[in-house]
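User: What would this chain look like folded?
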Amino acid sequence: KQWYQRRVRAAFSGLYAPYWDPTARGLIIGITAYTNSGHIARAALEAVCFQVCEILQSMNADSGIQMQCLKTDGGMTKNKPFLKMQSDILGIPVECRSATAEATPRLSIRGCFFS
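Assistant: Here's the prediction, encoded as structure tokens.
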């Protein structure tokens, strides 16, 4: 099996979390004896990409405006293959907004003082 046949649905906090079902469990499918931690890590990153894709498709449909570029920040922007994967899945360029990936916490703290 190829790496793309393994799937992870990252949904136990935040978007799409099954908060109504306390018995919900996680599941990773497609694992074989040849699956390694890299396959699982890639599947988890793909899950994030596909969730972002679902949100942007919904935004595009609701607004009637097609997004031309996605600007990102935060810790995951350190992972350039992740940004490339996100761009490939979305079919639009993905750009890192901040000069440093860790600008998000600093900006959040500043926002607390100025709000």
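The chain has three helices and four strands. If you want, I can go into more detail on any region.
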